[in-house]
């Protein structure tokens, strides 16, 4: 299946998302902050990125913008997965280049369906 990079500063969220993805046969790469996520995406070229927003240092909006604007990583779809569920956050996330936007706690079926959608496009 696909190689998915999960970028989240919460060990609990990393554990939950990794479990959901591995259950569906995906290989998971992990980063605990935006800067490490960008570096890992550039080095490993995952099939997709699940990006948290609220993280120390480089936040998820900034990291998403770096990935989607860089010709080297622009083809990697980014799905924002966050607790921020305001419409303005959704719009801003999409403006940074995110292909989709999910709010936590994320439903496993919705996550897998969304992932299939971005991987197919």
TrEMBL record:
Gene3D superfamilies: 3.40.50.2300
Classification via SMART domains: REC (SM00448)
Alphabetical UniProt keywords: Phosphoprotein
PROSITE patterns on file: RESPONSE_REGULATORY
Superkingdom in the source lineage: Bacteria
Pfam families hit by this protein: Response_reg
Residue numbers carrying 4-aspartylphosphate: 52
InterPro entries assigned to the protein according to its UniProt record, in alphabetical order: Bact_response_regulator, CheY-like_superfamily, Sig_transdc_resp-reg_receiver
GO biological process, one term: phosphorelay signal transduction system
Phosphoprotein as UniProt keyword: yes
Start and end residues of each Response regulatory domain: 3-119
Name the record gives this protein: Twitching motility two-component system response regulator PilH
Lineage: Bacteria, Pseudomonadati, Pseudomonadota, Gammaproteobacteria, Pseudomonadales
